[in-house]
Amino acid sequence: MANSDGRNIIVNRVISFAAGALLMFVVLNFSVVSTAKKKNVELTAALDASKFEAGRLLNDATALLEARDYDKSRESLAILFERYPGSAESVDGKTLLAKVEASNLAADTKWANVLSSVKQKWMDERIAVLRSESETARALMEKDMNEKITKEWDSSLDQNRKEWEATSTL
C-alpha cells in the first residue's frame, strides 16, 4: 500500500507539473500573440497611410500619366483630392489632372485619325491569313476527293461493268 501511495504522489506531481507548464504556455502564448496582432494592426495602418500619402499619390499619378494609363492616373488624383483637399499636392494634382485630360484627348484624337488605316491594315492581314487557310483546306479537300472517288470507283467497278455490258452492243 505504501508503494501505491508513493506512485500516486509521483503521478499527481507529474500531472500537476504538466498542468502548470501548459498553463504557463497558454498565458505566454496569449500575451505574445496578442502583442504581435496589435503590432500587425499598427504596421498595416502605417503602411496604408504611407500608400495614400499626398506626395505618393501625386507621384503615382505622374508616373501613370507618363505610362499613358490615364484612367489609373485619374483614380490616384481622385483619392488625392478626396483625402487631402487643401494640400499643396492637391493644387499640383489639379494641374496634373488637366495634363492627364489633355493627353488623353490627344491620344484619342490620334487614334481616331489612324483608326481607318489601322483597321484596313488589320483586315488585309486577316484576309491573307484566311485565304491561305482556305487554299490549304481546298488542297486537302481536293486530295481527299480524288482518293474517295478512286475508292468508290474501285468498289463499284464490277457493278459498272455489268451495267455497261447490259446496255452496250458488243
Walk me through this protein's architecture:
- This protein is mainly alpha-helical and 170 residues long.
- Helix content is 92%, strand content 0%.
- The chain contains four helices and no strands.
- Helix 2 packs parallel to helix 4 and helix 3 (70-83) runs antiparallel to helix 4.
- The longest helix is centred in the last third of the chain and has 80 residues, at 88-167.
- The termini are far apart.
- The model has no long low-confidence stretch (mean pLDDT 88).
Write the layout of secondary structure elements.
Layout: H1 2-51, H2 54-66, H3 70-83, H4 88-167
Order of helices and strands: HHHH
- The amount of beta strand, in percent, is under 5%
Task: Tell me the structural class.
Answer: mainly alpha
Task: Let me know the average pLDDT.
Answer: 88
Number of strands: 0
Q: Radius of gyration in whole Å, from Cα?
A: 42 Å
Unreliable segments of 5+ consecutive residues: none
What are the defining features of this structure?
mainly alpha, single chain, flat, 170 residues
Concise overview:
With 170 residues, the protein is an all-alpha fold. Helix content is 92%, strand content 0%.
